[in-house]
Records
---
Amino acid sequence: MERGKIFSLVGRELIMADPMLNATFGRFQIQERLGAGGVAVVYKALDTQTDETIAIKLLNQTWDEESDMAKRFRREAEITARLQHPHIVPIKELGTLDGRTYSVMEYMKGGSLGQRFHDPARISFQATTKILRQIASALDYAHSQGVVHRDIKLENILLGERGAALSDFGIARLTRAAKVTVTGSIVGTPLYIAPEQARGKANVDHRADLYSLGVLTFLLVVGCFPFNGEDVLAILGQHINAPAPVPSKINAELSSSVDVVLLKALSKPPESRFNSATEFVEALIVAMAQSTLRQTLVNVHITHEFAVTPVPIANTDLPTVKEVGEPFTADQLVEMAKAEADDAEKIAFLRRALDVAPLHSEANRLLFKLEGAKPRQGAVSVPSPVAITPPEAKPLPQFERNTRKARYQERAERQRTWTRIGCVSSLILSLSCTLLTLRLAGLASSVFTALKTASGGPTPVVAVDGEPIQDVQDAPLYVEPEKEVNLSENQTQAIDVLDPGYAHDYRLELYNLNREVAIYVQFLSLSARNVSPNVMIFGPDGRNAESSCLRDSTAILIDNSGVTFNCRVYMVGIWTVRILGVEGESNGAYMVAYAPLGD
């Protein structure tokens, strides 16, 4: 019998012989073995007190309760318990029972990405985008709390009802071959390890996680690991010394813009990487707009010659830093524009800033001043060596717009009724507060604005380059949002008060491509009369989504104190609804809400 088959059979027999299966551990009924390592074993179990399915991690009996590994096990649970984030697997309980330390976690029924890609499997870039955004938000949150994960990999990303979630903070692993975690001076997993971790540096920071996320992203987008092989020390040496392979040389469906983003993420010096996980992921999504890739065949077992033998940089055909230009932030590009004497150069820098951050209010204001009030559809793209500009969303043909509008008519009537009910109930609640009543009546907006400005808040924007803001086309583009609110499936509406000269952003996470969504903005203010021009919707690419939305200014009330958008989701990701406060037009109390229109 072949050696691999022997190990496979032995592995199954060992799992079948596990004495914990179908046993009772305290109040937990063990049901299934989910995974195991040199530190702990994870089981699916039933909490008989709450009748809830959970995951329970048991420290292996080989580790004494006073051992360093047991202390690390407890430290992981304590750290994770402090991290409250929707995309971090929560620790519900930590304890010791029958001499074994355990932690109780939320059960993630989708398993891990490691299980999903144990054998070669395909994943769409849409699904990859969703996973990466969720893990990036979890990482950035953990980093903001002073926590560095140090072991980002497929096996530590679990899938559940809320999507992807990060697990296993701070535990070293002892497994076989290339996936071993070397205890002692090196902590991490060699396939994903950052160069500074591979060198055994003790004080690695969050940028090590960003490198590991870059490796994970390389795998999901390109289809293989950037560095692989049978020899652990060789893999560590490649992370330290070998240049990362150029993605488009492996997968021809990828553009050179993707090369720039992924190779920056895999930079050897930590200071050359992205500043945050979210910045990296969003840059990748924009870069992918120039690629033809729609799905990737992920094969974790591929070993390429380029990953074993270091390739000289001269042979990669990668543009040099001088040719490409250092990736600047929008703020930096705006400062460069200010420093330029030539207006044409100023405009070029500002347009590049808007390629990076289409909603950058200062860049929009300065460009407005230089170019004048011209109709604009989001950011204007300019040719550059690393231009990463997605294609324009094409307007729907008129007959299609009319057909869709007719189809929505009956449905929209029900939605308007629901909206009126919500508005009326909100108004009644609001009227119970004297302060809010004054603001609803428009009697004290100037007082509140003065107080806000005096307390160090942002200054209201009432004009752009001397032109009254109510006369400026696409005025919401030029005002930095005072407030940003995330809406979700559990919170589909919000009520707030908007003062003149300020803007509020509402962010919607939409991942069902081609789904149609109704978005409502309803003012409760007695003075709101011209809401429609002061509400704009932007897609994940930062562009005005007008061409994908049917705007109906009279759908709620005849005095134009509300506006409804029926939008086709042409791109997955974060959609933004920006509401601008203009004196006598769209200031006061309001409600914003959204609802899917069905498949």
---
Amino acid sequence: MTQHEFRITGMDCADCAKTIETGVRQLDGVSACALNYFGGTLRVEGSTAREVVVQRVRHLGYDVQEDKTAGAKVPGGIAARLPKSGVLGFLRFLLESRNTSLALVGALMIAPGILFNELLPMLGVQSPVFSGMALIALALAGYPIARSAWRSLIISRQISVNVLMTIAAIGAVFIGAYVEAGLVMVLFAIGEALEGFTVARARDSISRLMDVAPHEATVLRACMDCKEHLGVDGYAGGPCPVCGTHEARVPVQDIRIGETVLVKPGERIAVDGRVASGASAVNQAPITGESSPVDKIAGAEVFAGSINGEGALAIVSTNLPEDSTISRIIHMVEEAQNRKAPAERFVDQFSKYYTPAVVVVAFLVAAAPPLFFQAPFLGEQGWLYRALELLVVACPCALVISTPVALISAISTAARNGVLIRGGAYLEALSRINLVALDKTGTLTEGRPELIKVKAVDCENPNGACGRCDALLALASAVERRSEHPVARAITNAADARGLGSVFALADAVTSVVGKGVTGTVLGRKVVIGSHTYFDADIAHSQESCAEVSAAARDGNTPVLISEDGLYRGYAIVADAVRGSSKDAVAELRALGVSTLMLTGDTAATGARVAALVGVDRVHADLLPQDKLNIIRAELSNPKTRIAMVGDGINDAPALAAASVGIAMGGGTAQAMETADVTLMGDDLGRLPFSIRLARSAMRTIYANIAFAIAIKLAFFALVLLGFGTLWMAVFADVGASIIVTLNGMRLLRYRSAT
């Protein structure tokens, strides 16, 4: 079984996507088929040859862009000189297509009939020429629509919107309403084009949100096969030993892992990588949504698409361009468009039965009153005319498009703000969350222990700078540099920050004693750094220090004691620092009506300390991964509970999978993005309340769109049945409703959270 992907062109509305999807699904050998209207991407699984799918799409009246990397075709003539936006932008859009250009000509042909027959009948200006011109307009604008309707019936065996409009136009001709027949087709063709133009602008806006990585970069490369130095000192080709490396401007897709990329001040970074030299403040907002630039020095990681600050950087590429963080984000946002929310699936199912039902109802409206109540069948307000109006009004375009435009806009806005949501289903689930379970380490805290206190036994100044305490820290650092333990890193980082990292040479004979600590030799003296329990058993220390260390442990901190040649020298206290955003995020969640629950494998004292600092409602401590999973399941046993689990995306995988929504503190890692339903790219918990607010706003927009689309239909149904409507008013109602719900959904592209 193979999977093919196609870029579909020529679609004007969501109903077009349904027609293509249905037609392709009926091909022999197709096991699965999904067409994303906004992305214009058709994915087909099965044994059917690619050429067969392309042929079916073209038989249905649409086209396939064979080269997915090619841009839109450049228009010629008048269209090329028109802007791409505004009223003239829509005119350009009409002139770019043969079918819409014919509809534009049809609009000019029918203008006299509209003016004298519909708008100014009191002038008494009548002519059969007007009717003839209306029929020509009907043919020009209606032929593509009628052809698509026929193919939809024959190939897809589906009653599409084009079928409804074609029946309405033919019926209008049958009763002699030639101008209205032509007007229906012209308005419908131009209205569909306007809807297509609006969606194209939405699609462009979404694409621009993700189009942040540059296409070229400056790379340091060796001079290869240098003709100038061939033969010098035996040089026969390959990297030139004389020229060395030089700067080369190359396409991003040609950059290989391990190459050095030079980034000038203010330039966009082209690759994921690690800073080799230079220092700068980098704006990572396009990737992580962080509002402030992040300082980058040698060894720091950077993301493709980030914007360099005032310093020049040399960056060693660590990922191929197609595997960069921004590429994965783009791919996953595209994938998200195919994961439909329950509301969207409901609308799709509803419209599947709705359109055929409308045809049946229209038939009954046309036939029942004349047959059973002697009501007029023909005439300007006869029941046939009303049935034709009903067909036009009932077009489900606005209803079908009401949901996906809002979902895709919200998902794109979330990605722009450093939140990756894997699909509409997860966005809808996120909007219903009323309980958030939070892992402690790496979620509420930094996950990187920091030294908060060091005290020598002969400390001279407990409340300020102390040379003897600094000497103790330098001594401990000399031993801990040989260790990879998180406590060791906290001590060495603190020593470096105080300029004490090189006071002593690195310790010799460093040995780790599991569960006790680490030993090493510094200047011939044995240094031991160990737990309080270890010192209680083997190394004497003062009651004062014992009490202070015990109090620190009760507060949830990690104390270590230090000795030199068997003599107690002092202690250091390490703590996992609480994230700066945690307290505010928990407060915002509470304001949203969402309660919080901490799940941690640390001790109850540590959990209680962090909970008190950030304001978490409940705490469960001393947990194994299975315990976290059981707690999530227990909470979900309450049918009213909708729980989100926030963790690192790897260690908390069972709990993340069991929760209503699994949320990873990703930091841009591939593992986190692939594990969770939602990823907070910048490791900023403040993105969580933003995400919930955005999800709730998206669902409110969807419900408003659906309600509006249904209400406008019901209102015009009433007008039609009471005899107050016209065919052209019905077209305006249908097209207008589609455009209004599209624009309303697109407002989410400009969503700004009120914090």
---
Amino acid sequence: MTKKWALREKISDDLEKQLLFYRGIKTEEEAEKFFNPDYERDLRDPFDFSVMEKITNRIAEAIGKNEKIVVFGDYDADGICACVVFHDFFKKIDFENFEVYIPDRSEGQGLNLKIIDEFIKQKVGLIITVDCGITDHDEIKKAKNGGMDVIITDHHLPSRGLPPDAFAVLDPFIEDKEYPFIQFCGTGLAFKIVCALSKNKAFKIFPGWEKWLLDIVAIATIADMSPLVDENRVFVFYGLEVLKKTRRKGLLALLEKLNIDRFNITEEDVAFYVAPCINVASRMEHAAISYSLLITYFDEEAEALSRKLIERNNERKKKTEEIFEEINRKMEGAENFPEILVLGDEKWPIGIVAPLANKVLEKYGRPAIVWGKGIMSKQIKGSCRSNGRINLVELLTEIGDKIFDDFGGHAMSTAFTLKEGKISELGKEVEAAFEKISHYEVESPCIWLEIGLGLDNIDWNFISFLGKFRPFGMGNPKPVFLFSNLEVSGVRTFGNGGIHLQLNFKKSNGEIISAIGFFMQKKLEFSVEHGTKIDLAASVEENRFNGRREIRLRIVDMRKAE
């Protein structure tokens, strides 16, 4: 369980300066923007994207001519939320000739030829993809030949260049090298387009209306693990404020059932509770459930859909754990693991291969490819996760259409659909491609500790100080501190089967401080009991439960004190 611990070099006696320095913030101007994000100042003009004027002119033309518009989204939380952003805009301007289409996971990611045929029959004039489409060359060509323009908005890497038949492509990773920030999620890009459209006086939108969309933008940005820096930090900072005031009946019902106090909602509430419920719809049923939840105007529908999503998420967690235990049993007898792990079974539902790949990567520290089929899919589909040693887009591109029907994603995370009858070839093709592509050095997992603290340093003033650095997430990790030679005054386990660990410690004034280690009980490598002395790598947080506020530690790792 124990990883390498490293105490950061001390660069200042001022903890604020120390934390800022290791987040790349070194000037007063940068610190001001970090601590006090400003919506008007810190969000760039969407027309700074060189293609934005072309995109908005075409959408405005379609609206003016009452052409049918299809918003085609990916089925994850990011794609769903991007569809909601466009839905809300069209409803705001009273444009009704649009359809949102989110494919079933079994249809595969992105456009497909069958649905293009259907859009041609419906006489669609414009397709706008969100969070997908960058690799769909054949489908876009067919759409163009069928009289439709296709605007691609995506933030994934292309496997074979830009689609030449697209009307326009907005993909900040490749399309526009001059825009200063590229780390948007798909919903972030949709929001930028709507911001640009809102400036069109013909739509008569009151300035600032688009801020009400930030609850959805924040959820997607957190769910997609986009780095919370630059414009993304502004999205989430203000999005959490909008969430406190949200008028979306579906979100209100979901937050209530998750026992989340929306007036004190945090980025962690979104990451660990809200986003998984939005994501689970496509994994266990259909993404349309989550989309409907986010746009519904009806209390009864909000109640039913939120209840269903929570039930499905509980089912997903249970099934994932069962299969992960199965994987661990198979791995137990292996003396040497391959450099890249390929695991799967036709009985495994395709909806849980992504979380399984994450868990395999986390436990075994190697690139992981996990595939499944289940009863809901006609094809085998897989998810891939990298530890940084390889670029997964490069890996899958090297294999190409020899065995894949389609594939795409990011350097660290990809997905694929396997051609029929090719499962026996997957392992050897991955192995061969792995040998051909570039390999990168990966440092051993390391926990960076900001400074050493004592329990007496932890009080409500310290909680307020840390609060200035929120929201935490990718690109702005929650600070982790070293607590040395702590004597355990109490131990308990909790959760399903006692999987979580709580340790109690006493401050010098007798006050009890608890430390929580989620999913840590099974990982303990030594016995912990009353009187045991340990070192902790832990973050410090405020916990709110049943109207109570308390300060506690969140355990990242622990070891016996020397």
